[in-house]
Amino acid sequence: MSDKIGVRSLPAGIAGVSVGQIERRVGADEAPALAPNARLRCIGQPTARINGHAKVTGQATYTVDVKLPGMLHARILRSPYPHARILALDTGPAECAPGVRAVHVIEHPIGRAIEIDAAPQSGPAGRELRYVGDPIAAIAAITPAAAQAALERIRIEYQPLPFVIDIEAARKADAPRVFDHTVRTEVFGGPATQLPQHGNVHGPDASASRGDAAAGLAGAEVIVEGEFRTQVQTHCCLEPHALVADWRDEGLTVYISTQFTAGIRAELAAALGLPLARVRVVVDAMGGGFGSKSRIGNDVLAAVALSRAALAPVRLVLARDEEQIDSGNRPATVQHIRAGARRDGTLTAVAIEAYGTAGVALGAGVGNFAQSIYDCRDFSLEQSDVFINAGPGCAMRAPGNVPGAFAYEQIIDELAERLALDPLALRERIDSSPVRREERRIGAERFGWSRRQPPGSAPGVHKRGLGMAQSHWPALVHTNCACEVRILRDGSVEVRSSVQDIGTGIGTVLAQVVAEELGLTPGEIVVRIGDTNFPAGPPSYGSRTTASLTPPARNAAYQALRKLLAAIAPTLDTTPEKLTMRNGRINTADGRHSIDFREAARRLSTEQIGAVASRSDDYGGFGRRTGDFAFARNALGGVQFAEVTVDTETGRVRLERVLAVHDCGRPINPRQIESQVHGGILQGISYALFEERILDAHTGHMLNANLEQYRILRSREAPAIEVHVLENYQGNSATDAYGIAEPAIIATAPAIANAVYNAIGVRMRTLPMTPAAVLSALGRLPQRS
Amino acid sequence: MVMRGNTSPHARSRTPCVTGEAVGPGAVPITLEVNGILRALPVCPGATLAEVLRDQLQLTGTKIACDRGACSACTVRLNGTPVCSCMVLAIEVNGAKIDTIEGVAGETLHPVQAAFLEHDAIQCGFCTPGLIMSCVALLESTPHPSEEEVKAALGGHLCRCGTYPHVIAAVLHAAQTSKRRP
Hints:
The complex is a heterodimer of chains A (785) and B (182).
Chain A: E1 5-14, E2 18-27, H1 52-56, E3 72-78, E4 84-90, H2 92-95, E5 100-105, E6 128-129, E7 135-141, H3 144-151, E8 155-160, H4 167-171, E9 197-198, E10 201-205, H5 213-218, E11 222-230, E12 242-248, E13 251-256, H6 261-272, E14 279-282, H7 298-310, E15 314-317, H8 320-326, E16 332-341, E17 347-357, H9 369-373, E18 378-386, H10 401-418, H11 423-430, H12 434-447, E19 462-470, E20 473-478, E21 482-488, E22 493-496, H13 506-518, E23 525-528, H14 545-568, E24 579-582, E25 585-588, E26 594-596, H15 597-602, E27 608-614, E28 622-626, E29 629-636, E30 639-647, E31 653-663, H16 670-689, E32 720-726, E33 728-729, H17 743-746, H18 748-760, H19 771-777
Parallel strand pairs in A: 3-15, 13-14, 17-18, 22-23, 31-32
Antiparallel strand pairs in A: 1-2, 1-33, 3-7, 4-6, 4-8, 5-7, 9-10, 10-18, 11-16, 12-13, 12-15, 16-17, 19-30, 20-29, 21-22, 21-27, 24-25, 25-26, 28-29, 30-31
Helix pairs in contact in A: 10-11, 10-18, 13-14, 16-18
Chain B: E1 3-4, E2 28-34, E3 37-43, H1 49-56, E4 75-78, E5 81-84, E6 97-99, H2 111-118, H3 128-141, H4 147-153, H5 164-179
Parallel strand pairs in B: 2-6
Antiparallel strand pairs in B: 2-3, 4-5, 4-6
Helix pairs in contact in B: 2-5
């Protein structure tokens, strides 16, 4: 690789508004400047997804469809108690049950907060079980039924312990302790400073605070204040967590429904003391993750241990109730916000006190939404985790920012009303993002925002309301990320990366990017992904996949093409620098020769040539780098408008229409982007109106651990959705593309809440906004004691 | 207090038959006409149609997601009618005609499948086979459905990725294109 740096002039600005040029210093191995989408053939086109045919015909192979010769089936024994100590455990009777091939006891469970100075425990006796469903042991047998039957033969003596389920009860000084010792603080994307812990309360973390919020509030001319509560939401991937572990002398292969093949390989290698090169992780079709399939869990380690013990492949697929109880969730939050402003709308100070619960895990914060989206000098955020005896939370689509935006965008709406300003006009004062300004302009016009009436002024029983809210999400880039492009002697082309397609269509995007560079069509590119035998790609979380992988994919294609030109130049009696490629043809400078790509490949003296490119830094540098990823200098925005009808007799909120305007840098596949925005909005509506994990206070059991009583939005509740995506050029990388998945969900719930307020004149500060909650807010239901 | 024993709330042992080892009642021979082909096979009395299709006939296009009739991912057609195959015991439907996702396309894709591709009515795709089975059945019984009729036909299906808008557009488009056929 060359160290030479050159200056490139790259497109910059928003298409349709103003696109100019920006000069960037870039490495010589970087592909040349890419024109705006209007002048490209493949990038920016709504290419049909390359694995679509397999998916509509039932041929796509998901992890649950993987069958290996001699494969065993595993089931997991789980705690029936919300809090108990194991006094004795005897697996003997299970080991000799019919069909059983291996038994594994989980002594040191992962995926939860870690106590710093707990006494080391050896053997299963003494282990504390901390929630109903906490895994205890796993059995591999020749059928799932035999494994299940054998679980019942494991003899356990439990000592039930006092437990706490309710977040308010858990905060009290005399509440039963979920952890006896202080747990290790974890912070996303940065070094952790150990936080204090009192009882079940870990924190507060005030690291996002700046200025003097108390003084700012004292000097404010107007103050609005409110307390907001959000519920636990579960991921509900339709494909359950699933894996087939195949331990052999030569190494371990794991077929797994995962959002990050390379990450699973690294975690497994570290956990098992194996070299990376001896672990292979594979996923073909993948049935949804939404954050819950990002890391290894107890199920993964158990299946691997069983395979190692049984010397056979072991399949482990969670049942739906296990999915609901023990595969992660979006933590609940309570947020108390005070916001102060001057009469002209200037935001002078914001103070937020938040606590939340991720059960036995950390991570119930409110994200970086309030601290980042609006100009505000004096800002304080104090947030704590509260432990309860419930299954661990984990990342779920825009973790933190979803509950954070639900609260903060309602406070801003309230502030606008107090200042007698239109919510859009207030944001013109406090939001310095030029991208969101354009998004508000487009959205207001297309949505017909001028139809909005004063809150609660709609006549009749069915009241219509309009509301809006904004998105903010960091633009993340996984820098430990590479891609290979191979040109074969018959002119076929392969793009290879370990990246997984979780349904977002990254394979199609890679085909478009490589085809653009090589003058081919996306259908001519063979996409090989979802296997750690290929160069390590990025995870499919954090809205970072496209941003991370498309620049090295394009650069690898560019470099492979350079190698092809160098290899064939002598056969055309010329030198490589005198060859140019245009519209799939390679021409000599003197115009005497012109051959197509396939003919050029045929002149190779070897079967294939190729190049592997790694993700280079954003051309303007990164804002902050931490471990394997970095924060881009830009952020991702988005504005959503919602129109609702509230039936004031039944309390039912009906979404009539949602209009979304988003940005993700350079859009590569507008149709797939539209699909993802639909997904964000529909999950956001579902979160706002329907979903809630319900735990029984007396037993700690989840009462709706299924897919009918845990209510999710269905087709008849889906409103008309319009999506508009900006082309926002920033000259940041070889593709200038960023992500969309998370920005698409952040604004939805607050836009709905603001629309409901506009309809009925009563603010819904608690999620979900069920009919009972709406009637209660309207004073038409007696308050439950 | 010390309690003894295992009372896991997650116990689920619906398929008592263990091949080769005597656990529970044995398999019973049945015949099914699957995608137009007569198949004779032994099924355990507790095995669902979804399990038999996937595990014994290797027709893994039919997906199991909730395993209790709440999400319709496992939809197949039983004598023409869309049903949740996780809620049907195979032994109950001896002699029936079963159509699965694998039998929908002929030499070319069915118009519904083609419309799903064109409209990107797919994300992770796990719910897609079930959705397609219901949509194909809808267009056979109601060749020109309204948008409300399409939404009603999809009413039992869960899609967590949020493909509904594109699915509805795809079905309406497929109905239009088949309108132009002789």
